[in-house]
Amino acid sequence: MKIEFAPLNIPLRRRLQTAAVLQWIFSFLALAQCCLAGFVLLALSDWWLLALLYAGWLWLDWDTPTSGGRRSGWIRSWMVWEYFRDYFPLRLIKTVDLDPKKNYIFGFHPHGVLVAGAFGNFCTEATGFSRLFPGLTPHLLMLPFWFRVPLFRDYIMSGGTRLSVCPPVCHVHVLQTADWTLDEDRHPDWTLDKDRQKGFIKLALKHGAQLVPVFSFGENELFDQMENPTGSPLRRLQVRGPHGNHSSKPYNQPATTVPIPVTQTPSPSRDDIESLHKVYMQSLTDLFEEHKHTYGLDEHQHLTFI
Question: Region annotation Disordered: residue ranges (predicted)?
Fold first, then answer.
């Protein structure tokens, strides 16, 4: 294994950007485990009463992730997120105005290894979501397990994440499955599974929420993925746990999110779901084709669906 050290003449601002990204990676991969271990150690120490009091608070606060969460404008506006944004850099491109009186479900493509674009654009104010879309309150959906981890749950909710079965004012819904993420490399063929995930379509129809497809250009280029063919020991380990890669930090690539609205139908019948899904996938394709040249893709690269 070869270890390379950064040159001493790297500007301080660049070092701060790298530090911001590394703390973000740590929060995704290890912070939950550290919070759980800290809570257990506190419970076994002379300060066990504090752990007991927090456990009582946790019991009273158990349903908060499903009833709006508990966001913090102060934490969302931390300067560390500006350094995080500038490392890649991240940008949120607004293509249309969204009526703040309506509800929206944002479909985020592609997932990426650690969902850098979705986190930076919708869990922080670094890219100016509130300024670009005044009156809308974004929430990033996460798996239920993370909201059961003591202390960690409070941290992730502060950015606007939540667990919900109903669309809030603005949802970011991660559409891809784990297998799609594990197959990513730095030369993707932009293949999406169009049939596995249609629950968000039914949700939009049921609640009258407008669908907004989002494509994060550069998301797949942020990390190198180790060779992990189906059936390999690494692939089995990744399926059971966090997705691994051999890069210590993301590549410095653009990860731009470009939302557009999709007209939805009011009835959640099967035909309506299929019809709206086709409209959504076509809108996503149009979005990709319209902006791909801006982000270094050539004319022969297209979205394909299986």
Answer: 228-270
SS3 213: strand
At 52, list the tokens: 């007991």
* Residue linked to tokens 């969902």: 115
Q: What is the dihedral of CA 144, 147, 150, 151, to 10 degrees?
A: 150
From the list 205, 200, 194, the residue with the least C-alpha distance to 271 is 205
255-259 and 210-217 strand pairing:
antiparallel
- 287: enclosing H helix or E strand: helix 270-291
> Taking the model in full, what pTM does it have?
0.81
**φ, ψ dihedrals at 7, nearest 5°:** -60, 150
- State the residue for tokens 């979005």: 287
Alpha carbon dihedral 146, 157, 26, 191, in 10-degree steps, equals 70
Report which of residues 174 and 248 the model is more confident about: 248
Helices marked H in 95-253: 116-122, 129-132, 152-158, 178-182, 199-207, 233-240
Give residue for tokens 């970011």: 172
**How far is Cα 81 from Cα 91, in angstroms, rounded to an integer?**
12
155 phi and psi, to 5 degrees? -65, -45
CA distance 172 to 214: 9
Lookup: tokens for 268: 């959640």
Decide if 187 contacts 224 (C-beta within 8 A): no
CA dihedral 109, 114, 118, 120 (to 10 degrees): -150
Which amino acid is present at 270? R
103-132 pLDDT, tens per residue?
Answer: 898 888 887 778 899 999 999 999 999 999
